[in-house]
């Protein structure tokens, strides 16, 4: 099916092993997008009794069929997990370049399980997957972590999702951050990442996402972007300020 590689990368932090799982074709059709695929995997990988911080608890990063293509607003990544804050389904998403880079590496989803004995980060470059030591940045913030990883890998354009001190200490509302300022901010995904001694995930891809008609997609994408940015709210508020653009309307609605 165009728009997908049909593959999920699974990394076990306990053993250090990684493997590619084939995503069933019917899943790609029936559970369209990162949220659908992520929730479908979560349903298979845990039981109602699985505790949020159990080492077998998965942390699932998933993408959609337009991710990694010229389609506008398609760069978001969703994280699916059991929320340590609520004990129920946790789902959070963030924009930026992490999701397109994961797709360019040849993966529609990343599933992290297990728990490392020591702080590590996952390095993914296409099919090359490695657990690397993160002890030097354990206890440090997002900016220092991203800078360290780029230097450690000698790769300035690598895309990184990481946690700070709140995630390390399993604060129930801790976020996972990417691009230093974009947040997977709901449900406490950062706390789950910290419970696994996982400081960060670094991704670099070199592949081109196959689509049915690239030129037509580019043309439609350009037209859609033009229409979007003709909207005053999108142009003047949403683009420069992001989520805070909605605060006024949310405040008015709550009165």
UniProtKB/TrEMBL annotation:
This is Tungsten-containing aldehyde ferredoxin oxidoreductase. GO terms for molecular function: iron-sulfur cluster binding; oxidoreductase activity, acting on the aldehyde or oxo group of donors, iron-sulfur protein as acceptor. It comes from Vecturithrix granuli. PANTHER family: ALDEHYDE FERREDOXIN OXIDOREDUCTASE, TUNGSTEN-CONTAINING ALDEHYDE FERREDOXIN OXIDOREDUCTASE. Residues 4-207 form the Aldehyde ferredoxin oxidoreductase N-terminal domain. InterPro entries: Ald_Fedxn_OxRdtase_N, Ald_Fedxn_OxRdtase_N_sf, W-dependent_AOR. It holds the Pfam family AFOR_N.
